[in-house]
UniProtKB/TrEMBL annotation:
UniProt source species: Kineosphaera limosa NBRC 100340
Keyword Ribonucleoprotein in annotation: no
Keyword list, A-Z: Cell membrane, Membrane, Transmembrane, Transmembrane helix
Main localisation: membrane
Name of the featured protein: Polysaccharide biosynthesis protein
Transmembrane segments annotated in the record for this chain: 36-56, 76-97, 117-139, 238-256, 293-312, 324-344, 356-378, 384-405, 417-438, 444-465
Membrane-related topology note: Multi-pass membrane protein
Entry keyword Cell membrane: yes
Length: 478
């Protein structure tokens, strides 16, 4: 969890701080083109037929069943081979579909070469992301998520260096795109090397393909529906915004999605370290381990949502400038979706690992369909706020259904009453304090003040956690 948060916060800082730098280097409208192209790549990353989630679940089951190293090696070989085939097919699909979509976007000021560069770069980014997802799934199943996090930090440093080169030598949109794609290659290279060190070269046999390929695809197909639907829920509105409100609005929506993505990442970094514990727990241990996961994710998700809601206008003005102040109310509304995600993330994790994944897939699909319908109706308002409100309301309405599904798997409520009541009270007080700070300080001082207080509180919480851990697990003597 420490590496999840350390590398994760680095990644968030990169997402937040590099976004306005990229917009300044490329221009608001040109960068909007890359936001759309890269958004399509992120969308298709989840179209892996659920093989990534299937790897984690299947390897967890194999470990519980006492599978040896050779058996795991054969499984990994089959899984990665399937991933490579899917990655090549999706990259080809991207190269055909994205240019067709971009024809619907008003881009008069951009050249055909700009279109060509972002499409080629987007297809390459898609392939690299799928390879990172494949190898990282294997590492997750081995309880080594820290490797990917370290690679993320290295990739972010490379992106900063690339932007600095573009700023010094020029390059505009093309230079920014190249810097982002090159930095994205770090994670698959590092994770691929780590997987190769553990399992060696692929050992494909007909017997292994028959034994592992079919079951993995069947399991993955169920998980795939849910994963893709979950991503469609907040990615498809981007393309609606691009076609109806223009490239500048797409850039603003991209900024909001960076914040939302950061919140979702924080929820994932909090919940995902429990993957191994949840998948390997005996039935009588599951409830206790699940409650820790649920409460920790609720605390993290609520904290980031309260900050975003309380400092929405100040964050956008300090971050992107006064020209993007119009998106402030939309960012505040997005806090509702952040809290909903903090509820959904651990619930889906429990059901996918220990229950019936089809339940989560159907819920994700229902949320996706209703969100698309609500967003399409909200476009009549002609405002970014209406679109974000539509998306957030649907997410909040469905969150309790995920908890019900997880409760059935666990056999008890995953949320203890007193800690959750205390969390709500603290969240309300924190929101009031943040609004007070925003009322008396200019945007940058307000943001820095809240950030400073947050760092102090986070450090204090880490210190308390460490002391309790030491008391609960004292060092051996002698």
């Amino acid at each position: 969890m420490s590496w999840n948060y350390g590398a994760g916060l680095t990644s968030i800082l990169g997402l937040v701080l590099l976004y306005p730098w990229a917009v300044a280097l490329a221009g608001a409208a040109p960068y909007g083109l890359w936001v759309l192209a890269f958004g399509a790549a992120q969308l298709l990353v989840m179209a892996d037929f659920g093989i990534g989630d299937g790897i984690v679940r299947q390897m967890g089951a194999m470990t519980r069943g006492g599978a040896g190293h050779l058996e795991l090696r054969r499984f990994v070989s089959v899984a990665l081979t399937l991933f490579i085939a899917v990655a090549l097919a999706l990259a080809g699909l991207y190269a055909v579909a994205v240019p067709l979509y971009l024809r619907t976007v008003p881009t008069d000021a951009l050249t055909a070469r700009d279109h060509h560069v972002v499409v080629v770069a987007g297809a390459l980014a898609l392939f690299l992301a799928l390879m990172a997802r494949a190898t990282n799934a294997v590492l997750w199943a081995q309880d080594r998520q820290d490797i990917e996090r370290k690679a993320t930090m290295a990739g972010m440093a490379l992106r900063v260096a690339g932007f600095a080169v573009v700023a010094a030598n020029g390059g505009g949109l093309h230079g920014v795109v190249v810097a982002e794609v090159v930095s994205a290659a770090v994670s698959p290279v590092v994770c691929g090397t780590a997987v190769a060190a553990r399992f060696g070269a692929p050992t494909l046999t007909r017997a292994a393909i028959g034994r592992y390929g079919g079951p993995l695809l069947r399991l993955g197909s169920v998980l795939f529906v849910g994963s893709l639907a979950a991503l469609l829920t907040f990615q498809l509105p981007l393309f609606v915004v691009g076609s109806t409100l223009g490239l500048v609005a797409a850039t603003a929506y991209g900024a909001l999605m960076r914040v939302y993505q950061s919140a979702r990442m924080i929820n994932s970094w909090t919940a995902n370290p429990f993957i191994h514990q949840l998948s390997s727990a005996e039935p009588h241990e599951l409830a206790g381990r699940a409650r820790t996961c649920f409460v920790a994710t609720a605390v993290a998700g609520t904290a980031i949502a309260v900050v975003c809601a309380g400092l929405a206008d100040e964050l956008l003005v300090a971050w992107l400038g006064q020209q993007f102040a119009f998106a402030g109310p939309a960012l505040a509304a997005l806090a509702v979706a952040m809290v909903a995600d903090a509820v959904v993330k651990p619930s889906a994790l429990v059901v996918n690992l220990r229950g019936r994944p089809v339940v989560v897939s159907l819920l994700h699909l229902a949320v996706c369909v209703l969100t698309i319908g609500a967003v399409w109706m909200a476009t009549r308002t002609g405002s970014l706020l209406g679109i974000v409100v539509a998306m957030s309301v649907v997410a909040a309405l469905f969150a309790p259904a995920y908890v019900v599904a997880a409760t059935r798997v666990i056999g008890a409520s995953p949320y203890p009453l007193r800690p959750m009541v205390a969390l709500l009270v603290v969240a309300a007080l924190a929101y009031a304090a943040i609004r007070g700070i925003a009322a008396v300080l200019a945007p940058w001082p307000a943001v820095l003040t809240v950030a400073g207080v947050g760092v102090v509180l986070l450090g204090a919480a880490a210190l308390v956690w460490r002391r309790r851990t030491r008391r609960a697990d004292p060092a051996p003597v002698g």
